[in-house]
Amino acid sequence: MARLTARAAFRDEIARLAKLIVDSEGVGFEEVEAGLRALTLEIVVGADATTAAAHAAVLTAVAVGHRSFVGGVRVVGALDQPLNTALPLKGVTLGEAAAKVRAVSFEGQASKRVSIGTADDPEGSTVAAWCDGWRAGTSSQADARWGDASNPLAGIAAGALAVGVAFEAARGGNGEVSREVNLWDADATEAAPAFSEIFLPGALWLVGLGNLGQAYLWALAALPCEDPKAVELVLQDPDRVSEENWSTSVLVHDETYGALKTRVGEGWAEAKGFTVRRVDRRLRATDRLEDGDPRIALSGVDKIAARRQMAKVGFECIVDAGLGRTAADFDKFRINIFDAGYPIERHFAGMKDAAVAAVPDEEAYRELEARIGPCGPVNRG
Q1: Total domain count for the chain?
Q2: Which of 11, 44, 180, 187 sits a CA distance of 20 to 30 A from 337?
Q3: pTM score, two decimals?
Q4: Which of 173, 142, 144 is nearest to 57 (CA)?
């Protein structure tokens, strides 16, 4: 792994993260930025963490972790084991793959610690990730209960949850480390099928390649496809990557700044072996699917108006995810599935996008505006 080196400028990259903390804690941007640069995370890999789900958890935790633990994420433990993941990361060992997603080395004790697999926890402060079938969660190391670890999607959820819990603890949370999510159906009364019994569609249309769209691509690439070339993806987005996307988008790195988001997604998907088409413009209400186009859409847009545009295009199913936008709800999410029986236009009938908020009249924002001008990163959407 590469040794951590200081970055010349992090202001734009961590602007959204800094704004979250300023809004929730009422401190200044300079103080927040300094604190974020000091945050580090250590991921401990147990010798028993050899499954596809465990490796997905490790690699996801690194890929998302260094965007909040800005000081760096290092991985220790059983790193020389053979790599066991369908993610398109070059490397023979888990340690080599972790370096590809920006694991680094640094001196001294890490701010927080996450474990995946069995690990020593002398102080009882480690956040342990676990998964079992379609369930994923976090707990103390003593309570971690790995079960069926064949599902890489559950591993992804476990790794991401662990980073979130660790970051909450770093911000002075209440110390509760237990979290759980059921990826199949939280309200299901019947047992979920085994991961090996699931068949996924061979064609998908991704609308929006920001944080949600890239998360879709990360998860899709983790699936063990028998013939990736038989999977067709259409990637649609008009925007280019900017520095502000770094803290929220799993495929964004320094070298992708200025590139079309569809091009970044295409590079990742083609590395997996998927067949890819790009549409480098917004979806229009007048667009109509042609014969052979994917009929299932994964929506990663953030505006109600953009969702309404999808109503008449011809999609038979739309999976729509949404995230919170403020310090009070940034860690909340919701997922809706729309089809002929529950059309997207009915769900969003009468809803409007919230008005763009003015710059808050708070000292931290006034200081930032004085330092970098009125068009600073916190004013960008």
Answers
A1: 2
A2: 180
A3: 0.88
A4: 144
